[in-house]
């Protein structure tokens, strides 16, 4: 298999796995590799393809807090621990940003506390 064919195969396999949730993203940010436009035209034709250098900065900086916490803990010893910590971190970040219908009627600075109080009563 030629190098170009291998890159296309690898990009197609990665994007197929990423799109398993049966949702087509509105925008896909990649580097400037020439294989991406071809594969994105096949798999996510309606998605806007962005190749700007700093397009992923909000996404890349989002996990900075998680990495800072992991450094203090000395890392994770089990896969299960990593899964639980990552899921909890993502839940709190999304809750704080208002992605759930919990405590959306209160100011941002109070949202986490009120949402956890509501969850405590519910559970």
What is the structure about, briefly put?
The chain has 123 residues and is mainly alpha-helical.
Write up this protein.
The chain has 123 residues and is mostly helical. Strands 1-2 form a two-stranded parallel ribbon. Helix 2 links the parallel strand 1 and strand 2. Helix 1 crosses helix 2.
List the keywords.
mainly alpha; two-stranded parallel sheet; 2 strands
Q: Detail the poorly predicted runs.
A: none
The span between the termini is 55 Å
> Which percent band covers the strand fraction?
under 5%
Overall 3D shape: elongated
Helix share, percent: 55-70%
Q: What is the mean predicted local confidence, pLDDT?
A: 79
What is the strand arrangement across the widest sheet? 1-2
Main sheet properties: 2 strands, parallel
Order of helices and strands: HEHEHHHH
**Which radius of gyration do the C-alpha atoms yield?**
19 Å
Number of helices: 6
């Amino acid at each position: 298999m030629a190098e170009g064919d291998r890159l296309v195969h690898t990009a197609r396999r990665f994007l197929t796995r990423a799109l398993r949730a049966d949702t087509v993203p509105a925008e896909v940010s990649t580097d400037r590799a020439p294989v991406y436009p071809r594969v994105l035209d096949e798999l996510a034709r309606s998605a806007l393809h962005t190749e700007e250098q700093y397009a992923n900065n909000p996404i890349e900086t989002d996990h900075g807090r998680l990495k800072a916490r992991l450094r203090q803990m000395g890392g994770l010893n089990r896969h299960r621990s990593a899964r639980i910590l990552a899921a909890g971190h993502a839940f709190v970040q999304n809750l704080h940003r208002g992605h759930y219908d919990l405590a959306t009627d209160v100011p941002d600075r109070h949202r986490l506390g009120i949402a956890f109080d509501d969850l405590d009563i519910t559970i």
